[in-house]
Specification:
Length: 362
Amino acid sequence: MKKIISIVLIALMGLMAGGASAAEAPQGNNEIILHAWSWSFNTIKEHLPEIKAAGYTIVQTSPINECVVGEGGGRQLFGHGKWYYHYQPTDWTIGNYQLGTRDEFKAMCAEAKRLGLRVIVDVLPNHTVIDRTQINARLDSAVNGRENLFHANGLWPIKDYSDRYQCTTGEMGTLPDVNTENPDFQYYYMQFVNDVLACGASGFRYDTAKHIGLPGEMRDPKSPENDFWDVAMGRKAVKGLRLAVPREQLFIYGEVLQDRNVPEQGYAEYMDLTASNYGWVLRNVLNKHDARADNLLTWHHSVDPAHLVTWVESHDILQRPRLGRHERRAHPPGMGLPDRPQVWHTAVLLTSSRQHPRQLLG
Ligand SMILES: [Ca+2]
């Protein structure tokens, strides 16, 4: 525990309110998630007993997919941190140079299971590596050619994030937008998902989830049907392949950042959601050292709080080079991360509670 605390970068509170509707998840909605941001599989495995002793119930890994080896490799966290590259998939297979091999991942999951902990994996089917020359040939083959990998609109930058067509089919921050509705891609991606589950994972965090469209939303010209989420959640098979574990046994939440025109209720039909506005409020309160500086008494979200995952700070806030205005403001002076590139063991803590914020405030 002591060591864990010493290596934690961000130990702040997230909340998930109590309620019956999240009971579909077998362990309920009072999970405590350790976001083992950029920890290698071996590092997580080594510290599992301490993680367990500290009270966590779930460990969330950084993306485990094959990714680009950016700027000559290395594991620098701060400054121009290399963590950014595991968010740039070159293929959807398990293992990358930053986190470790498939065997190491499997061994870590087995040890977690032995200790009664669950592992969830940060996944990002929405986009590939920025430098498309780095894409693995296997991925091109899986979709019968590079021309089938991306949306027709997928190389056009998103200019208006509140335009759902742009948001779901366009290029987000120079990251090429995958045709997530291509059945060939879905089949390939679900093989990855099922392999992750076979290795012992118990769920996922869907990065950039709001950039993958919902049924009924405007389709990309190359998309036959907006059915990615039906496939990903096991409601629908693709080419005979289906999610290998019943959905109700998995813990899945999506990064659906709140903004204008985001169909929060539509995403909540499929997964739990990040309560990003509440996170901003929490940061604001902490920043001002005054619990009354903002309204902590509501979740600032339209979805049943039983389906919300909140956090105060994460890698997107402290390390991402292109921070949003709110996020930049919320980064309190003196709370910045020390420039210690040797510190590879970092974490973001997401804690949860059945208590409503009103209760927490007494
Ligand atoms: Ca997309």
